[in-house]
């Protein structure tokens, strides 16, 4: 598509609300539907996962037990066991952390001494992440490590929050000879009752001392069997993302380097992962959702991983460039883990975890939002050249913004982050029109409307974001990737606001910003069609438009955002196809709108602001398209086989 046509398409952005309602057609849109078009990158619209708001632990990762290894209180014992708590009073049971585990990297274990024999037993309970979702008929795999100098008779049960109702239960019985050394035990519990805020209770009625460690409970049914909470993962799958960027964000940097995310501490058996305190978002992570699992998530979603790694810089300290070599080697080892052969050191570790084939790691970001830090440029170059020498096919992403001036260093892509008001984001539809096409590609890796315009996820935010994404789509010759941020929030730990997907222990919903992204899921790999727009009246019309042919060539999609308070009528002409080549009875119109710009979804009303799709029986090569006030609209026009262009 020529740049002149594209610029015409966004001309109307510069004026906002029309001063009066308009009865006749406001715009004429002429689409060259027979054109070969320009291919949109298959990576254009993706998702960004950061461990923030308990997005992973207590969210996407289906582990029900919080602080499974008793390590979150630190290595000095006795330590805080939270959120574990006693069942029984201090005259009945003694609970204490000790450095007595069989795991060298996780030395802390729990010593539980039953002091008195009490009917029903005493012990310890874990509420999970603000409650465990236990449902009748579902099965849950519980595993734990245990040691004792005596016989073991331990009740393992899911109970109601107050302990009055048992939902599922099993007994672990061992002879003294079986219990004298640390051993792992697994059992499957089938729930016969439901409680969305349940707990796991480990109790005994017999006076003796037990040591417990690495207690886990997972639903047996997870997304593709890989440990992801099914409902949340399906919401990602529905977006058909072109990539998954992970694991941060500021989470990658850490408030200090000692608390930064380190990939090698998150791979291998879960029991041997030390976990770490994510000091930027102020909570402990057992790192069950680690580097391997995030690569697996990308594969399960049939998309590409984008690994953001720490470049020796945190929010409070930086590694001198001359001391960076061990950090560089660490990242090279991480690449070997992801895509090295099974004969390599780290490839063997990946194989042992159940994935002999390499992962397709072709995108990596050198740091996050670090461009202005003292040593970023020097550190960046050392990483860049070391990685390119070993893996020339990996696309490396700079943290520096190259939209206004050249980066001054080599890069395949550069990050662009924008958190702003609705009006400002809408006005940025043209942001990438004049970015040099000779330099690296743009990665809009974090965008969102925030603060008063956003609430906790408003329709107004989604409206402006949709217009911004159409601008990205029109400029997809230079913008290669884009992702909303943040992706997830557990309502019990809202560290950032707003977010795309909201959940608690058992329910979830998408904000309008989540549903807005559905309008773009067919754009990845599609062909952007040339089109021209003409104003048919003297009033400025705040509308942004695009036209694409989806990747398999079977349909056309016209998208529009009306950012104004009045309806807009568009006279659409499709050139290069005949009316009888459009499947009228399968044509649809999808509209996202709401009574108030500040409307939000909620657990009580999760579908208050969602797209509504209906048949569009007026589909033709010449037709009228009506845009309601403040709306996002997509017109889907399936093509009969005779008119499908080769792509």
From TrEMBL:
Its EC number is 3.2.1.55. GO terms for biological process: L-arabinose metabolic process. It is an enzyme of class 3 (hydrolase). Keywords: Glycoprotein, Hydrolase, Signal. GO terms for molecular function: alpha-L-arabinofuranosidase activity; hydrolase activity. Gene3D superfamilies: Galactose-binding domain-like (2.60.120.260), Glycosidases (3.20.20.80), Golgi alpha-mannosidase II (2.60.40.1180). It catalyses: Hydrolysis of terminal non-reducing alpha-L-arabinofuranoside residues in alpha-L-arabinosides. Residues 1-24 form the signal peptide. The keyword Zinc does not apply. It holds the Pfam family Alpha-L-AF_C. The keyword Signal applies. SMART domains: Alpha-L-AF_C. Residues 445-631 form the Alpha-L-arabinofuranosidase C-terminal domain. Belongs to the glycosyl hydrolase 51 family. This is non-reducing end alpha-L-arabinofuranosidase. It comes from Selaginella moellendorffii.
């Amino acid at each position: 598509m020529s740049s002149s046509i594209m610029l015409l398409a966004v001309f109307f952005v510069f004026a906002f609300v029309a001063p009066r309602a308009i009865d006749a057609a406001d715009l004429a849109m002429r689409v060259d539907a027979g054109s070969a078009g320009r291919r949109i990158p298959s990576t254009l619209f993706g998702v960004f996962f950061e461990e923030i708001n308990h997005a992973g632990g207590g969210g996407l990762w289906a582990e029900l037990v919080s602080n499974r290894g008793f390590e979150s209180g630190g290595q000095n014992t006795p330590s805080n066991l939270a959120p574990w708590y006693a069942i029984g009073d201090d005259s009945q049971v003694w609970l204490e952390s000790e450095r007595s585990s069989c795991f060298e990297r996780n030395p802390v274990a729990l010593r539980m001494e039953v002091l008195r024999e009490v009917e029903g037993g005493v012990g310890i309970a874990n509420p999970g992440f603000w409650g465990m979702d236990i449902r009748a008929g579902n099965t849950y795999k519980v595993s734990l490590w245990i040691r004792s100098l005596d016989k073991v008779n331990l009740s393992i049960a899911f109970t109601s929050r107050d302990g009055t109702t048992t939902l599922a239960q099993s007994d672990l019985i061992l002879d003294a000879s079986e219990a004298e050394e640390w051993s792992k035990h697994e059992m499957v519990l089938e729930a016969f009752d439901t409680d969305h805020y349940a707990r796991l209770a480990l109790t005994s009625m017999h006076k003796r001392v037990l040591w417990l460690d690495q207690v886990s409970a997972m639903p047996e049914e997870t997304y593709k069997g890989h440990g992801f909470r099914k409902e949340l993962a399906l919401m990602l799958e529905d977006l058909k993302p072109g990539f998954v960027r992970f694991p941060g964000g500021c989470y990658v940097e850490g408030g200090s380097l000692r608390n930064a995310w380190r990939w090698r501490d998150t791979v291998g058996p879960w029991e041997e992962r030390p976990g770490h305190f994510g000091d930027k978002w102020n909570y402990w992570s057992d790192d069950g959702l680690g580097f391997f699992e995030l690569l697996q998530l990308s594969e399960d979603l049939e998309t590409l991983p984008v690994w953001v790694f720490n470049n020796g810089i945190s929010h409070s300290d930086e590694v001198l460039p001359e001391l960076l070599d061990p950090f560089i080697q660490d990242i090279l080892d991480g690449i070997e883990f992801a895509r090295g052969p099974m004969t390599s050191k780290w490839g063997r570790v990946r194989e042992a975890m159940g994935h002999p084939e390499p992962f397709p790691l072709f995108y990596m970001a050198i740091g996050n939002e670090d461009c202005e830090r003292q040593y970023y440029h020097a550190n960046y170059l050392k990483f860049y050249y070391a990685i390119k020498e070993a893996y020339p096919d990996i696309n490396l992403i700079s943290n520096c913004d190259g939209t206004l001036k050249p980066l001054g260093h080599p890069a395949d892509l550069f990050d662009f982050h924008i958190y702003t008001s609705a009006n400002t984001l809408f006005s940025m539809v043209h942001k990438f029109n004049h970015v040099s096409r000779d330099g690296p590609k743009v990665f809009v890796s974090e965008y969102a409307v925030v603060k008063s315009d956003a609430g906790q996820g408003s329709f107004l935010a989604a409206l402006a974001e949709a217009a911004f994404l159409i601008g990205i789509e029109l400029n997809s010759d230079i913008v290669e990737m884009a992702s909303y941020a943040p992706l997830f929030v557990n309502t019990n730990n809202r560290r950032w606001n707003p977010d795309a997907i909201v959940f608690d222990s058992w329910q979830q919903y998408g904000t309008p910003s989540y549903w807005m992204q559905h309008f773009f899921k067919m754009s990845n790999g599609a062909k952007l069609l040339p089109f021209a727009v003409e104003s048919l009246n003297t009033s400025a019309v705040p509308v942004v438009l695009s036209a694409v042919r989806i990747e398999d060539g079977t349909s056309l999609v016209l998208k529009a955002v009306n950012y104004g308070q009045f309806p807009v009528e568009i006279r659409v002409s499709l050139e290069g196809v005949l009316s009888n080549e459009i499947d009228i009875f399968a044509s649809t119109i999808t509209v996202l709108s709401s009574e108030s710009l500040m409307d939000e979804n909620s657990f009580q009303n999760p579908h208050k602001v969602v797209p509504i799709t209906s048949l569009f029986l007026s589909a033709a090569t010449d037709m009228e398209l009506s845009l309601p006030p403040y709306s996002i609209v997509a017109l889907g026009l399936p093509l009969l086989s005779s008119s499908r262009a080769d792509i």
